[in-house]
Amino acid sequence: xxxxxxxxxxxxxxxxxxxxxxxxxxxxxxxxxxxxxxxxxxxxxxxxxxxxxxxxxxxxxxxxxxxxxxxxxxxxxxxxxxxxxxxxxxxxxxxxxxxxxxxxxxxxxxxxxxxxxxxxxxxxxxxxxxxxxxxxxxxxxxxxxxxxxxxxxxxxxxxxxxxxxxxxxxxxxxxxxxxxxxxxxxxxxxxxxxxxxxxxxxxxxxxxxxxxxxxxxxxxxxxxxxxxxxxxxxxxxxxxxxxxxxxxxxxxxxxxxxxxxxxxxxxxxxxxxxxxxxxxxxxxxxxxxxxxxxxxxxxxxxxxxxxxxxxxxxxxxxxxxxxxxxxxxxxxxxxxxxxxxxxxxxxxx
Amino acid sequence: xxxxxxxxxxxxxxxxxxxxxxxxxxxxxxxxxxxxxxxxxxxxxxxxxxxxxxxxxxxxxxxxxxxxxxxxxxxxxxxxxxxxxxxxxxxxxxxxxxxxxxxxxxxxxxxxxxxxxxxxxxxxxxxxxxxxxxxxxxxxxxxxxxxxxxxxxxxxxxxxxxxxxxxxxxxxxxxxxxxxxxxxxxxxxxxxxxxxxxxxxxxxxxxxxxxxxxxxxxxxxxxxxxxxxxxxxxxxxxxxxxxxxxxxxxxxxxxxxxxxxxxxxxxxxxxxxxxxxxxxxxxxxxxxxxxxxxxxxxxxxxxxxxxxxxxxxxxxxxxxxxxxxxxxxxxxxxxxxxxxxxxxxxxxx
Lengths: 349, 349
What we know:
homodimer, alpha/beta, Isopropylmalate Dehydrogenase, 2 domains, 7-stranded mixed beta sheet, 5-stranded mixed beta sheet
């Protein structure tokens, strides 16, 4: 298994990215390809006494910034470390690609250089989040601001295959539709249309799910448009940060609270680990023809290591082949329905 | 000051609703009108030894349930405790109305029985939430799933007047637009259109705000459509509940953690109080011609008491008159622009 890592993507690149990739190599026995400034990578490795054994480096001196327009990856930045990695993935130079760089650029680059699975109308950013009932997937979590019911239906199909194959050993995954209430009539046109499609699908649809119940793990897959998905994801992150900050302040109040803190310390550390996005290891871009993982922009070495682990599992389970089959079979069914409709019309004539 | 309270709205009605209203009477010296089953209210008060001094009761034996279609308040449930209270408010039988009943029914009833302020295209549910920098307003937080830029612009005007007058002693309130990133080009048509309007308005617009920064108090007023606003509000609530639950479990782990819990207990209680929606006292329906406050469905006596306090402040500050003036003056400006455009066209002819 060979994983390509964008050494220059993310807030702590390249040092933490390189470290994380090497940790993954050591922990999971995967081969690593780093894309980025080769001279600099070799210098950093030497300075930090990091071994580059079993690591290829593909040189790319340009980097696409977090605030650049995504489309610049197609022209101005077509030779940046992210673009080079994506083309390498497409050409078979590795089994999966990991980047902690700009989400918009990664989506644009993946769609253009790696291509979408045939029949997929849009690729989705599928965040995998921790809950007491195990990890769950939230998609779209920021790639597609405006969505149609057919897109959400495809997101649900892809997400439930991914969760089933990669996270649940083939057990079926439940799907919930994010909505402002649990009753069927809640929401707007997008929710009504998607509810209809999900209800009549072969997926394990559990109905509408309120945002309040998502953090506790209301379903294995939560589908929604990229705007509200992004709002959910970031509200969750912001609230966790705020509360852990409050707890820290409480524990630092005085001698008594400091003693209190010592007594619960190991449990608090376990809680932080449980809630940490560094542990879940990044979000797959579902709908792209080869495995691409978006790691969090603030990834340090541990998060990159876990993203590489997830990328390897994504590639190993062959879930993309299963998604490709499922979409083709949906398409066929759709065509039959259309054919039927045409036939009826013809008869009516 | 006379506040009408829907005695039969909410999960803990009527006992907690009645108790909360009476507590508000005692704490703030307001008069109370209760709507609901008079016989039952008098019986409960007698059983619980609650004094009904300075309390009017307007009889209404019907109740509209949380899961009923909102429009049933206009016909099947037109004489329920909520409808009776809203008509009483309209007819001058009180200065403000508080209900913990169904949000949809309250919005429908308020729009139909109390009417909107002239020129307001839609009333918004404006949740007031706690943060370290003081309370902030999130609107729309669930009333209007589909919105246009002009609606969000009106929400911003109304929200900033409310926060300035009711919460900040006339100090100007800052306004942020909820978006998937801070850069101006982020989001879809709704965000682009609203950004333009806010940028060119006289409001203190701070630009796009990510959901991650909302819980810490990124602006006094956060505007967005009712779908994503509801998602933000409920994700915040769900995450706080989940984390406080985890903390409780940690403290109950063993003898040491129990001692730890004792040492931080008063600080934890203060934190819970700070984050409690019971303290913020409910969400005004902005755009309605008289003060209407939606209390949380799970309100117990303290939350109702605080909702009555907020309702009294809402009425006392006369912010609805200021909103009415602002909307009329915006309308006039709009008409002048239209007149100007027509004049130019005429000249061009």
